[in-house]
Task: structure prediction
Amino acid sequence: MSRSVRYGASPLLASPTPVWRSKFIVAAIALGFAVLAGRAAYVQVLGNEFYQRQGEVRFARTLELPASRGRIMDRHGLVLAYNVPAPSIWAIPEDVNATPAQLAQLARLMEVPLPELQKKLADEDKTFVWLKRQVSEPVARQIAELGLKGIYERKGYKRQYPDGEAAAHVVGFANVENLGQEGVELTFEKQLSGRAGSRRVIKDRLGRVVEDVREQVPPVDGQDLQLSIDSKVQFFAYQKLRDAVIEHKAAAGSVVVLDAQSGEVLALANYPSYTPDKRVNLSGAQLRNRALTDTFEPGSTMKPFAVTMAMDKGLVRSDSMIQTAPGRLTIGGATISDAHPQGLLSVAQVIQKSSNVGTVKLAMQLQPKEMWEGLAQAGFGQKPNIPFPGAVSGRLRPHKTWRPIEQATMSYGYGLSSSLFQLTHAYTVFARDGDLVPVSLLKTTEPVAGVRVFQDKNATAMRQMLQLVTQPGGTAQKAQTIGYSVGGKTGTTHKQEGKGYSAKKYRGFFVGLAPIENPRIVVGVMIDEPSNGRYYGGDVAAPVFAETVQQTLRMMGVPPDMAVKPQIVTNPVAESF
Amino acid sequence: MRLNLVLTLAVLGSAIYLVHVQYESRRLYVELEKAGAQARKLEIAHESLQAEKRAQATPLRVEKIAKETLQMRTVTPAITHYVTVKEGAKP
Result:
């Protein structure tokens, strides 16, 4: 049954609705849509850029692509410095809620004292604190396995130096930020460091990279450097030097090995040294690259220069005779004397016996200007052309200020100073028939041209004289090697102390070359303050020279130039290396 | 009228396909990233191993082992037999 009610007809419901009301509603709704449309247009057209940027800020990230630092290698490609992954551990102190036991374990893993760790984590205002920089990878993995909240790791690399203290002064080291601080690491920072790249990416909510926003800038890795150093020679020279310094209870020592033909530095070592990987409590004495930064009066090792200059001027020949008796000579009120007075000596014997009087008699026949020019050309008073931090120029005063006695003392090595490196470099003029070769710390392949200092016949004659020094009757018989002919000059000087000379502190050194006929290497050795009885250069430095030369020439594959009595190995003798 | 319907459907379909392709491309990109990271990791591991190899062969260590464990001694010309290679002979 149905019943219909006609409400419309009900007078109660018959509302007298005005027409404007419905029109108003329609207009309001239309306006609403218009606002929405306007907003949409604003967001998508006018303000589009702003909103896109805001969106990007929330999802796009710029990632840095670190460049890896170039490796440093020796002349045969053996690595002297390389990178190993070394993550750094950091924390947000506020978020850390580890138990004391966990903290103790963390401290043990990082090798940090527990109180120090607690102190670092105590400051809750900080939002970032390094706990330990550059831990090894296994340690970082163990720390990650602890699963502590608020502890994070950041990837990084650190430098490793496999040759340790032997090459420390050459290679130097880079700091925790991978910036070179010393040695080659500092000198060639630009080439080694490279340039970091970057990429702009979009990350999703899980932090995964899902899209590259624009072209990435690839990192430019640092270049590998190949040094002229031969790590075997370097090691050997360092080892011999160290043994000698310890044996003679000396304060320090240096050794420089140069390739006479190419001017390359084959080895450069100092003792005391340091381990570049563990730089804790380093002292200046350990860090100093003495061969380049320390200057000293070269003493008798200067005599060959004065004598060769006299020969170059045509004043004497190697067999000319000079009267050195009575072993004393007075110039301008000062007396120069020989430690062991001799009589009539040939020029060669003046070198062999290291006679001050004989040298001075020759040197005084030179003009100060000539002598100054000769010394300056050989590199004295000039900064060595080697890109090394702290390399010094030594001291060679301008010739106009020389008094006669000063010219005399300079001829036998007092009153001017040089570093061991300069001195060794200067000796390349004798090794190379009279020209000075430019030195290089990087491996060179092209032939180099030297600058002529002496006439070749005089340089060759001087080589023969230098050989006499190491033979019976000379001052450095301990410089002899088995199988190779050597030549060189000893030097023993009193150390300067304040304004005068110390009576008991000496410096013994030896600079020489080998083999005599066609020299391949020039080696300089300096022992500072030997205090175990012997202090002459011929006693303390010459043996280091001999052993270094012996091994270096063998490693270079130079055949012996002297007859050797073969030893039959039936009863092996414990031989010092 | 019918054409409009077809076109609407086509637009819808293409839009949905676009979303799918975008999703797929991101997924693949993540995969690529992962593979790249793996490659880098292996490269680093390779370098570390190389470095370790080098550390095992430092002159210091070689010298020590040769002298102490293997009882070797340094060569001198006195205990070396030098052979001259004739001109034209193969080395």
About this structure: The two ends of chain B are 92 Å apart (CA to CA).
